[in-house]
What does this fold into?
Amino acid sequence: MEAFRQEIILGTIALYMALCVLIGLWSMGRTRNPGDFFIAGRSLGPIVISLAVFASTLSGFGFVGGPGLVYSIGVSSFWMVVISATAFGLGFFLVAKRIRMVAELRGCMSIPDVIAARYGSELARLLVAVTIVLGVLGYLATQILAMSVVMQAIFADTEMFADISLLSCVVLSSTVLVFYCVTGGVIASVYTDVLQGLVMMVAGFLILITAMQAFDGGLREASEIVLADDSESMMPFGAAGIVTSLGWFFIFGIGLAGQPHIVTKMMMNKNLADNRSILPLSLLGYIVSALLWISIGMVMRAVVVGGGAEPLSQPDDAASTFLAMFASPLLAGVVFAALFSAIMSTSDAFLNIGTAAIIHDIPRALRNRPVNNELFWARVVTVVLAVVAAGFALFSYYRDATLVALLGAFGWSTFAASLFPVLAIGLNWKRATTAGAVAAVTSALLINFVVQLAGVPLPWGISGGLAAFVTSLVLFFAVSFATPPPTLARDIDRMMEI
Amino acid sequence: MDRLLVCVIFAVVLAMAAVLLLIGLIEAPPNAAGVAHDTVAAMQAGGDGALRLEAIGGFAFAFQSLVLLFAILLCVLSVKPTRRTPAFIGWMVFTYAVNMLVWQQMYFGHQTFLETGETGWFLGFPTATAWQVYGVWFAGVVLIAVYSAGFRRYILSGDDERCFEELLRESGELRD
It folds into this structure.
């Protein structure tokens, strides 16, 4: 079996890709209008939504960057994972019920739609839509680049495709993603999320078992080796320190409720009452999958500092080196399929919300009317968005990494800082005003952008995202209190009473 | 009732901002956010943990306590005022207490390790880290249990569903 390692890995990935294409074809017949394309006609059951929510949450970063972070800074990065229960809980308390109600009440198809309905403001809609487009470009570019680099590395170990170019890998991986997103819209996206979520859970569980067997003394022996080498990196705040760790708790824990690719899924369930089971199921899936993040990173740090392997040239090699050292070809194939699953499940969500922002929200905000034939243009823009993001990814890789790094700044923390107050608090507080919302979104964008552009170093490992998030919260409340109380639309006012 | 609650939440946000500002104003030691590992490239070490915590440990503890309070208060805000029964408030207080217990066990367990260099172990991790890995997860699960088990009592009752259906019908008639 070991002699056919690369063939088995490639075969597993090819099987996974073929299933995604089939789901795209199957979904095509079920996508008849923009409502189907963007929010699946609010017709999905609790298991599908649960898997879609957690699969969208755990991106390729969790499978490559996560273990790499544990390798490089120890336990600090655990904070991004262990916060998940509180994050999902808070997100459902604040958003799940009301966003679903607004979606049905006003026929909303996107987060900017919900914002426009809540605040009665096209300016708020425009700001949120622009934020989403910028974030989507950054996220998509990094995800496509990650997917292509991994694919190239896998091909490089085969005889037949050893010299395959990165461009070919970008085209190959993006084609599958774009195919099912274009044909089936969000219906294909969520049903591929089901497949992807299941693959990720299986991989997370199997990797934990494998990691526990990497040392005779199990996980404790790995921890003891890391502790003996540098005790702080094995303590709760890791090598990055307490402020960085708590900043991640804040951004990833509180900020989940402001992530558009996740909360959009909360608009798609058939029954409002399904939320009671969607929440625990989503969390279960996330925890099982995220075991991979912690276990691979821990074992690889212990193996390297314990002298069992050469130091990695870069932390992001932790997962692939672990698989080469400890995993059977079949398990490696499943994990690589899970990695593609993680990347594609997040990417398809971003393609969908980015397309909605461009086709549906920006025209409405600027012209007060939608484009004609939204479904056709949605398909066209999905392709264009993916091509532009792939172009950014290639430009970043070959010429200048600054562009994607800049767009990357509009990632999780910017969404958290700009959308959490406006959406998660705004849906629960009638006194929140448009001026407060505009101040929150604008300050979050500016602080993140300036800190990233100017490379401003903040002391104690305080991140620009944390500073932006706290500032936007202060401004949201302060400006709302300082401006006259809003007059809500009657239906929104009544909905917020429920 | 909501006005008072939101005022308290705003006060907590201002307190978080003030604590973060104070931390930022204190001079940071060279290893505040880690140092390069002695022998392994592309790896960071934490170095002197006691030195890192000496100046800002108290502020960091306060910041996290405020963040946990902020999260719980937001959950309370999301529930209809008439459903914020003593039982619900009790559950929220319990959730905050569990979160604070986990946080203080983790924080002070780490401090004890820094002072003594000794640690117990629990399921593969040093005790303080085990509080982080298992405790933070568990504390969040309490919140989820309140949401799921108390869904019909606190989040969406049968009456709420009927009110919403009526609202949908009226809105539809208005549009027609």
Summary: Chain B touches chain A through 87 residues (CB under 8 Å). DSSP finds six helices and four strands in chain B.
